[in-house]
Design a protein that fits this description.
190 residues, mainly alpha, two-stranded antiparallel sheet, 2 strands, 63% helix
């Protein structure tokens, strides 16, 4: 049974455990404003270079707000989608590897990405196995990030604004389990 509870300040408890150089401390202590990243390839790559990937943002959010319904639902959906796409990629990779093996056994190697082999001195068959196993994994990660990019960015913008204003209370409609609620008294009627 999940009951509504008073403010547990879970975000403040987690914030106090963060190291001094953490990005969340920049929002709260230095007053750094977060500018939401607009969807696009260049901005998407910049987020990877900054180290704040959508997955990392979602992990931070789930630690700050572990009982917030929206964050929990997005976390479950994101990693569920990633796992589904990863399985699809592995199935494709295994079928394509068998196809490449049978083609190579008959003496035919597909002539793709020929210029990389000339520069890096690698065999075409090795490159094809490498592409067949790496590209579906990259596709799984990137397509999941693209699908959930807007929702994660909006959740992160709300989180950054709350830190800018030093609001560490739990958001409205946060339901804590009874084990986390010290004021919870179970009433048993006979």
């Amino acid at each position: 049974m999940i009951v509504p509870s008073q403010d547990q300040r879970v975000a403040k408890k987690y914030y106090d455990t963060l190291p001094a150089h953490d990005v969340n401390r920049n929002y709260a202590e230095k007053g750094e404003k977060y500018v939401p990243v607009k969807f696009g390839i260049i901005n998407y790559l910049k987020s990877y270079l900054n180290g704040l990937t959508p997955a990392k943002k979602l992990d931070y959010l789930s630690k700050f707000y572990p009982y917030q319904k929206t964050v929990v639902a997005e976390h479950l959906e994101y990693y569920g989608d990633y796992q589904d796409k990863l399985v699809s990629g592995l199935i494709f990779s295994s079928i394509a590897s068998l196809l490449l093996f049978n083609l190579a056994r008959r003496g035919y190697v597909i002539p793709i990405f020929r210029e990389y082999g000339l520069r890096f001195k690698t065999h075409r068959l090795f490159r094809q196995y490498l592409y067949v196993w790496l590209l579906p994994q990259i596709w799984a990660w990137d397509s999941t990030d693209f699908k959930h990019f807007t929702m994660i960015e909006s959740l992160w913008a709300v989180h950054a604004n709350r830190l800018n204003q030093n609001v560490f209370s739990d958001p409205n409609f946060t339901y804590h389990p009874p084990s986390e609620n010290p004021n919870f008294v179970r009433k048993v009627y006979y």
